[in-house]
Amino acid sequence: MPTFGNGRRVAIVAGLRTPFERSGTLFKSLSAQDLGRAVVAELVARTGLDGEEIDTLVFGTVVPSVLAPNIAREVALLPMLPKGIPAFSVSRACTSANQAITDAADQIALGHADVAIAGGAESLSNVPILHSRGFANALVGASKAKSVGGKLGALTRIRPRDLIPITPAIAEPSTGETMGQSAEKMAKLNHIPREEQDQFALRSHRLAAAGTQDGRLTAEMMPYYVPPNYGEVALNDNGIRPDSTPEALAALKPVFDRKYGTVTAGNSSPLTDGAAAVILMSEERAKALGYTPLAYIKSYAYAALDPGEQLLQAPVLAAPLALARAGLTLADIDLVEMHEAFAAQVLSNLRGFESQLWAERAGMTQPLGEVDRSRLNVMGGSISIGHPFGATGARITTTLANELRRRNGQFGLMTLCAAGGMGFAMVLENAS
Ligand SMILES: CC(C)(COP(=O)(O)OP(=O)(O)OC[C@H]1O[C@@H](n2cnc3c(N)ncnc32)[C@H](O)[C@@H]1OP(=O)(O)O)[C@@H](O)C(=O)NCCC(=O)NCCS
Questions:
Q1: CA–CA separation, 404 vs 350, rounded Å?
Q2: Domain assignment of residue 86, given as a range
């Protein structure tokens, strides 16, 4: 049975995250860099990892800060880490942390590294608001002008319309469609009724609430004392609604198609701030340093499709490839973690797994099959827990590795959809 790694098995040794906070709430004053530095500092402290052992650090983010474009290097420059850790940042939309993890794993498989930290962070509370071209030109003109008159002259060219800022939209540049509109279209194309979407959202909240209550979810988080006063502390994900009911969900109005829509704030993932990271090691180095791996990377795959078609359906193309690369089928999988951007997307992906048409598109002769719901997102998912774009992939990796161990399962599958019509899938093997 093939295993990723070129004969050098890549171990997931540990993972940690901040609580995920809805944007505009507890973490509103924090940047992605702040959140990323905090989680890596805590992960290193908790594992007792010697900074001198770290060969590389890779971090993902979707909305980079113009003030710190290489967030990974800023995270690697933590005071307790040596200054000699090469670090680079990656972006692949909602699978940015997965890109960071697979890039780091590739470095280990190639023998270029033995120990790596990989993850991602996002602050949707602090998305940059851009000036219009007209306003920017005037500012540049004024800064270049030598005289006061010249500066005033440049500024007087500003028109009222130039003062309207460019607000970032979570939309596809190639189609102009927002993610929510794409989810709405997928609900219609795949005949997914509102009730089914709401039921899935309710399931997510209930399982996440249970995972918080029994400590499984909180065991993967660090308490975050919010600067500058450190009076407030984030201890868990504030998007989880233990009190959610079918009635309350049914009462919500569709957001992206007000007239005929089924996608609401209740069955969508919320805009969220947070960070997550994992420690990866070669099997040999982990043993040499006395670390017990959680899981090994068995295989992974990326896929893409036309964004104008079903934007968030690419996991249906990535999963069969990752399973084939691992020499496995869905029947061999004990646990599935599927990113929940929208309930409509999750249910479309699950229908795609059972579809002959999508199987053939993935170059397979037969569909993957039905995912056993009792093995799916057993501690909830992004609809309830939240979705800081650059961090979610690392959250899911840690949760899948931990829960696979808890359940003494052998193989776990994760799948994520991403903007640009992309998808990711990875198979993990329990290390115990
Ligand atoms: C859908 C979306 C627009 C909603 O944003 P919002 O309106 O700020 O959402 P809120 O959290 O304020 O919720 C709106 C209302 O629904 C209610 N609500 C949300 N979830 C609920 C639930 N599970 N149960 C009951 N009520 C709920 C809120 O309480 C709120 O009610 P209020 O208006 O009475 O306060 C936003 O979350 C969004 O854009 N999500 C998608 C993000 C995205 O595209 N991600 C990329 C994925 S690829």
A1: 21
A2: 10-126+270-430
